[in-house]
Amino acid sequence: MKFLKNILIVLALVMLCTGLDGQVVLQPKEIVDAPKGIIYKKETSFGFRLHENGFAVSFNKGNIPTFYRTNYYSFELGYYRDPREQRQNKNYSLSLFNSSRSYVYGKINSVINLRAAVGMKRYLSEKARRRGLAIGYSLEGGPSIALLKPYYLDLIHIIDDDTRDFEIRTERYTEENAEKFLNENDIYGSSGFFRGFSDISIVPGIQAKASLHFSLGAYDKVVKAVDLGVMADLYIKDVPILVDSEFISNKPYFVKLFLKFEIGKRRI
Q: Is there a contact between 202 and 237 (Cβ–Cβ < 8 Å)?
C-alpha cells in the first residue's frame, strides 16, 4: 500500500508539472506587428471617369462616420458624344494656313454635362492591414444639366455660278439651312470646338450611379480607389445631338458603363 501511495504521489506531481507547463504554452503570444493606424474623419479626392461615349472629371468631398462607411458629395464636369457619330475629313485647303477640319456629318449639338450628387460608399470586406484592398459598393444621385453647345460647320456658298467664286460661312443647323447643312458637297469642314459657347442652351434632368468600389490602403493618408459601375442620366426632353432621321432618333436618357479612377487625401 505504501508503494502504491508513493506511485500515486509521483503521478500527481508529474500531472501537476505537466499542467503548469501547458498553461505557459497556451498563453497568447505577444503581437509584434499589430495593425495600427489613424482613424480619419474626412476625405477629399478628384476622380476621372471614362464611360462608353465620353469622359468626366469630378471633385469629391466626404465624411467618414464609421470605419466601413463614407458619406460624400460630388461635382462633375463631363462630355458626351453620340455613339453613332462618324468623323470625316475632306482635306480641303484654301492656303498653307487655312485647311479644312474634320467634321461629324449630321451633328447639331455637342453635349457637356454638369452633375452634382450626394453619395455613399460602404465597405463589405475587412480593411485590417495596411495597404490592404477593401471591397465595397458606391451609390450616388442628384441633378444633371446638359449644356447643348451648337455645332458649327464651315459651309461653301457659291457667289458666282459662272466663275465658281465662293465664300466660306460659319453656320449652325437651322430648319432654314437644313438642306445645305446636310449636303456633303457644301461642307468645307468643322468650325472648331470652341465655336458656339455663346449660344449654349440648358436641358435639366437627374442622374444616378451604382458601382463596385475598390480602395487600396486602409490606413493610408492618400486615397487610391477604382470604381466599376453603371450610370444613367434622365432629362426632361430629348437631347438633340444628331439630326433626327428615319434611322436616328434623339432621346431624353443615357445609360452607360463606366470606369472611375480616384485619388485624394484623408485627414483627421
A: no
pLDDT confidence bin for 162, thresholds 50/70/90: confident
Q: Which residues form the domain of 107? A: 36-267
How crowded is residue 26: how many other Cβ atoms within 10 Å of its Cβ?
Answer: 7
Residue 19 lies in a domain: no
**Grid coordinates standing for 256?**
452607360
More confident residue, 100 or 103: 103
131: left (phi over 0), alpha (psi -120 to 50) or beta: left
- In this structure, what CATH number is given to the domain that contains residue 218? 2.40.160.20
Q: Write b or e for each residue in 203-212: b if 16 or more Cβ atoms lie within 10 A of its Cβ, otherwise e.
A: bebebbbebe
Q: What is the distance between the alpha carbons of residues 175 and 228, in angstroms, rounded to a whole number? A: 42
Q: Please, are residues 179 and 247 in contact by the beta-carbon 8 Å criterion?
A: no
In a domain, 60, yes or no: yes
Domains in the chain: how many in total?
Answer: 1
Answer whether residue 16 is part of any domain.
no
The cell numbers describing 107, all together, are 451633328
- The pTM of the full predicted model, rounded to 2 decimals, is 0.79
